[in-house]
Amino acid sequence: MTTGATGRSDLRAPVIGAVAWAAALVALGLPESVSGLALGAGAAAVAIRRRRGLPSGTHLGWLVAASAVVASALLQVESVGTTPATELARQGAAVRGELLVRSDPVTGSGRRAPYVHFRATLLEVSGRGRQTRLRAPVVVVADTGWAGVRLDSRLRFAGRLAPADSRDVAALVIARGPPEVLGGPGALLTAVDRLRAGIRDGVARQPAGPRALVPALVDGDDGGLGDDVAADFRTAGLTHLLAVSGTNLTLIVGFLLILARWCKVRARGLVVVGVLGVIGFVLLARTEPSVLRAAVMGSVALVGMGHHGRARGTRALGVAVLLLLLLDPWLARSVGFALSVSATAGILLLGPPWRDALARWLPRWVAETVAVPLAAQLACTPLVAAISGQVSLVAVGANLAVAWAVGPATVLGLLGGGLTLLWVPLGQVVSTPAAWCAGWIIAVAQTSAGLPLAALAWDPGWVSLAVLTLLCGALALTLAEALSRRGVTLGTLGLLLVVMLVPLPTPGWPPAGWVMVACDVGQGDGLVLNVGGGSAVVVDAGPDPDLMDRCLDRLGVRAVPLVVISHFHADHVDGLPGVFAGRRVGLVETSPVPDPAGGARLVRAVAQRAGVPVRTVAYGETTTIGPLRWQVLGPVRTSYPDSDSPPNDASVVMLVEVRGVRLLMMGDEERPSQADLRRTTTDLHADVLKVAHHGSSKQDDDLVRGLGARLAVISVGVDNDYGHPAPSTLHLLGDAGMQVRRTDLDGDVAVVVDDRGRLRTATRMPSVRPRPGGVGGP
To answer: What is the pLDDT of residues 152-163, one digit of tens each?
Structure first.
């Protein structure tokens, strides 16, 4: 970007990048014939303009850039979509062949069993009586026996081809049996693999969190991070630290440049060091599209840090977007690409004026430390809201709190990993401070995510996102003036802290006349039955203590005379400490089948610490507490050898009566125990059904249809891996005439009985969606 005497910015290069991006989206979103017509029109316009001798102005540059990107997209779509593999995939052909591994295998959780998937280049395929040599991009799906295949290995496989979901892949390879390795990676990638292993070995003796985070910071290897840690990072606005980003490259290459300067390297020598550093980073983090994108954006950031950095940086950003889209038009649809470009643009365009404004009353280094994450966060806010459905209120503060630790953790993790290859104890000593820094980052993420109002839920619809984008644009234009004033800045910061630290009141919650609430605790059950006077019976506690504790706080529950644990899977018991937090608990009752043993031990340990007795329920017993009266209808037996999950079938089932309404509280019962319940309980009717096993497909149709219930409540997590609730179950409930309420869509669900005895529901959406919880039965 250049600035003239008027101080106005020249944004021609960034605009060309934006035009190229729009052209790529159009080319990939329209049929090839329409895109080809657009390309022809663009080429004709260029030819006419040149023939008439018109000057090559800005508009011509836009047209050329758009035409080039559209042409590249069309050529690549055509080359991928017309391979022999594509035709075989349409036929679902059984094939044999050879392929070259292009990415590390990633493990996924399937409904039946775990699997691995990775990208590859198909080199040879034999099927339908024909053998063909080719080079086609594919995605391979295989069992976990393929988890050890290495990048750049040549493999022989057997399996079948299926159509791919994306136009940048020729086919999906569903492999059968083990792979046959024909050749391993070359010497360079073998050395890189040893360094990656050295980085992991350097922190091998550290606690689990830092042991997983340091490799993620250095080279994007985040396979060891738990779902709860990743969820905390998302809420705290620190997700960029878990993936390969421009930040990683800036830190590593920046360290190499500092080291080179210390060694008296100057001028072109520094350029060589920088280029070698970028190449080394790409090899270390893998030569995948996301890594290449991160390397380019990181290089742009490095340019922006140099002399006349803002001007050069914005020009480099526009050119980088254009070049990346020419090479890989599918980046135009990549969320990671959009976030990288937005963050880099925010830092380059908004960072300097905000830094200068803050520098009027803060030291310059402090002003820069605040301005950079603030600019990046504001630029990315609409995109993050579209992806996650929330706007983080703690992101800037969390990024400021970890800023000092990210660099040492990254650089020392890399240095320690290299030294580990020479002598493991030395490498572990150097890596120890990196682990300390990683521990601090995790602590900040957990603390930030645990604040009462860490993030606001935001509807990802077009209208609300447009409003949010306008708000961010208004802030971008006006914030510099506000930041230049100490009183306004500190006052706004204080108000934001109060909002985050003090829970906002929830008018109308809990609703008058509530008898049961299904708490929004993620993928699990956390049910509350109202006794009155601030007391309630809790049935299961969900997977997360904090989420269960907050739900009870919202309901004003101060005493829990009884906790019922339907069975011992983690998604029903791990949140139990949250029930005990600051409340009087009288008794814990559990399933008679102590399986899994770990869950049973957790329940007894929590109760023992609080001095609360634990007993197992008995089939057929009745209990009355205040207005609640219930009978235990299950488990009918304590052994289910015919079950896919005996702990699920051993769930406690309660038929609760309160204020003239009957609620059937199912645990995670599956078909065998549901059939037992139907056979052993005569004239079973209920007004409300708490659907078994989070709405899984394993429902007894006759039981559900025979209840005569008017309302079905499903306690289920957002975007869970099990496909709950199953479409077949939702169809069954609808056919049975039940209104369905789900915690993943409605938040907390309250069953209400009004003064006239009429049944209705009320819901409360959370300010931030709950994070994924523990794993229950499959």
So the answer is: 899 999 999 999
